[in-house]
């Protein structure tokens, strides 16, 4: 594992690299609003990706690197993410297709930046469709705006809602809630099967 600080317009981010034996593509994964890159679902997705021949960079946003718990505004998160993707794309993953992904808030960032960052596919873990108990405050437009192959892995009892499958979008339901801690092996299998299909297209 290699770790590096990456400059962004909003302070340094941190990237933790997990290498696959053969690099067919690279997956950048972001954390949730209040958590870090050691979340069980991120670890499960990392394991699945590296086994499938995909390098993984677990990306820690600048506010987390600086020791702050409250997340930065969306525009800052997106700008920092795109800066990391550009840096790592040139430094660690030249000529490889980049896949964006993350859990919860990180999934939203991946969706919002997919087009500008030329992501070949998007992986969403526990996408927060709406705040708990407030379905009228939907964020589905962020997910609907993604035009590349997308996988959403969602807990069956997620209080943040459940998106529907759509064109280019697969939704896989697993036991548990928003934390996605209940079936990490199921997450690994689901991500692995999806990557196998997607890599035939993008890699």
UniProtKB/TrEMBL annotation:
<protein>
    <submittedName>
        <fullName>Alpha/beta hydrolase</fullName>
    </submittedName>
</protein>
<dbReference type="InterPro" id="IPR046879">
    <property type="entry name" value="KANL3/Tex30_Abhydrolase"/>
</dbReference>
<keyword id="KW-0378">Hydrolase</keyword>
<dbReference type="Pfam" id="PF20408">
    <property type="entry name" value="Abhydrolase_11"/>
</dbReference>
<feature type="domain" description="KANL3/Tex30 alpha/beta hydrolase-like">
    <location>
        <begin position="24"/>
        <end position="181"/>
    </location>
</feature>
<dbReference type="InterPro" id="IPR026555">
    <property type="entry name" value="NSL3/Tex30"/>
</dbReference>
<dbReference type="GO" id="GO:0016787">
    <property type="term" value="F:hydrolase activity"/>
</dbReference>
<dbReference type="InterPro" id="IPR029058">
    <property type="entry name" value="AB_hydrolase_fold"/>
</dbReference>
């Amino acid at each position: 594992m290699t770790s590096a600080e990456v400059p962004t317009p909003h302070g340094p981010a941190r990237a933790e690299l997990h290498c696959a034996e053969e690099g067919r593509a690279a997956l950048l994964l972001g954390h949730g609003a209040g958590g870090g890159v050691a979340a069980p679902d991120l670890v499960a997705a990392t394991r699945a990706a590296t086994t499938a021949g995909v390098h993984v960079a677990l990306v820690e946003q600048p506010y987390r690197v600086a020791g702050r718990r409250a997340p930065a505004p969306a525009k800052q998160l997106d700008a920092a993410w795109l800066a990391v993707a550009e840096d790592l794309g040139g430094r660690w993953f030249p000529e490889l297709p980049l896949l964006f992904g993350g859990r919860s808030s990180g999934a939203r960032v991946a969706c919002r930046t997919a087009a500008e960052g030329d992501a070949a596919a998007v992986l969403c873990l526990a996408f927060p469709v709406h705040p708990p108990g407030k379905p009228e405050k939907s964020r589905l437009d962020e997910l609907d705006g993604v035009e590349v192959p997308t996988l959403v892995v969602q807990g069956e009892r997620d209080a943040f809602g459940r998106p529907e499958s759509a064109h280019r979008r697969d939704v896989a339901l697993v036991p548990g809630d928003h934390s996605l801690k209940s079936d990490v092996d199921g997450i690994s299998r689901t991500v692995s099967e999806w990557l196998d299909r997607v890599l035939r297209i993008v890699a």
